Task: structure prediction
Amino acid sequence: MTFTQECVIPVERERLWDFLMEIPKVGRCVPGVETVEAVDGSAYKGSLRVQVGPIRLSLQGTITVEEQDRSAWRARMRAEANDRRVGGGIRARLSLTLAPAESGTRLMIDTDLAVLGKIGEFGQPIIRKKADTLLAEFAQNLRAALAQ
Amino acid sequence: MNAFDYRMPRTLDEALAILREYGEEARVIAGGTALVTMMRQRLVRPSCLVSLRQVQGLDRIEATNGALRLGALVTHREAETSPLIRERLPVLSETFRRVATIRIRHMATIGGALAHADPNQDPPVTLMALGARVEIRGAGGQRELPLREFLRDYYETALEPAELVTGVTVPLLPAASGAVFIKFLPRTADDYATVAVAATITLEPDGERCREARIALGSVGVTPLRGRAAEGLLSGERLSENLLHAVGEAVKGEVDPLSDHRGSAAYKREMAAVMVGQALTQAWEAAQRSVRGAR
Amino acid sequence: MTRLIRLTVNGRPHEVEVPTYRTLLDCLRYDLGLTGSKEGCGVGVCGACTVLLDGKMISSCIALAVFADGREITTVEGLAEDERLHPVQQAFVDFGGFQCGICTAGQIVAAKALLDAIPNPSDTDIREWMLGNLCRCTGYYKIIESIRAAAERSHT
Result:
């Protein structure tokens, strides 16, 4: 499934960009992220917990930064994560763009998400709803982190 | 399924104490139809199940002041076949009858259904149209919430940790009322609905104009919804094609369905309007019959 | 964790120590050797695992074995009396109510429960009661015929 989300962060583009490209730092702003570590220059591994009612997913996987274009304020990332216990996982391609906004910078995220296995059978419709809540919390955490 | 402790408290207080003891690792089990299915698919892995099957006093169906009260352990089949519910709130027994199969209805309880909070379920839709209130018990004592506040999100309720649903109170309909539940399911008869609608119409004493309408919709959001804008359009009006059309359009604006294998979001949105129209027409006729019958 | 449960199956008392995660179906099949009931879907939908719990039909694949403690279970093995088949079983034989047989135990137990509850069911009664017992072979016509015949025979 594909979806586009956006949020406005009250800092200038340069500062937001630099923060976003530090994956371990920005990773910690994603709600449910437990660990993010660099593997090498553009690859990271991490774990994320997501909860829907009584169902708790523990996703382990990798994030690869495929493209970083500061002059165009655009980045592309690929994420793959699995929950071995439930049996299933996600494959996502994310495209981030920064544009100037009245009160700071508008961050736009285009996501192409495939949900596989058990989670996919059960979770497709919910994931979309969860993505919106996740983004709202992420934006909040991002603002808080940048306010320091 | 994973290994788990299985506890069988004999009282509510015992059950609550066990829930506090295990915290997040414990889940309550009554009929188990939803929970065991999820556990078999490894979607939930509690390390303790707290069975309510030996707790007394939670399975009563009683008439109270202008309402019916169903204990949390009343099964769907008991609610479906209860002479009291059939007589006082036939729309409710009819709704329970539509759930899955008799096998499931023999085990699944109303308390479990409410705590499970799947927006595709049938009984919460009718219960919402009827203005039901959920009884909750926890360490802090007893509290009651309107159903629409109890159901928060997909699989999420207002239950705090170590709290249980103990019952649900359903107000009876006033005189000159008709109520209908429609389950639209283009697939098999034992499935969840693609769209479900429960509508109640209460007429003015003249039997012509609508005094109050309530429209609840299932499978069109992360919880069952009341179509408030649509309801507002009906107040004080006579039933007409134009009115139903306007109501249908209002409904389309109020629902937020998810696409799944029972239908795309767009399809569900369209069918929500169609089913609301059908439900209102039938509820109106039922209300008029009730007015004529009373004369 | 295991539990010692005492249940009556087809009129006979049994004492079994089961892990808490054991389904009633697995307990019947593996602990008690009653392999008549089958697992078709594992999610309570197809009806191949239908048994009676205190006379009420349930999906045994999503019931925990511990639920049966102190209760009475009826499986397809409990319907015949000595060498005489139950009228439902005999009717399924006489009227061709099964082909591959995988759903048949569940169909028969459900049909027996129907005739216990509604001795003279209409076709609508039969269809509504039996809607949760799926069959991939017969197209259901012979199943309904068999049940109708069993009902008629039980009256003569």
User: Anything to note?
Assistant: Chain C has a mean pLDDT of 97.
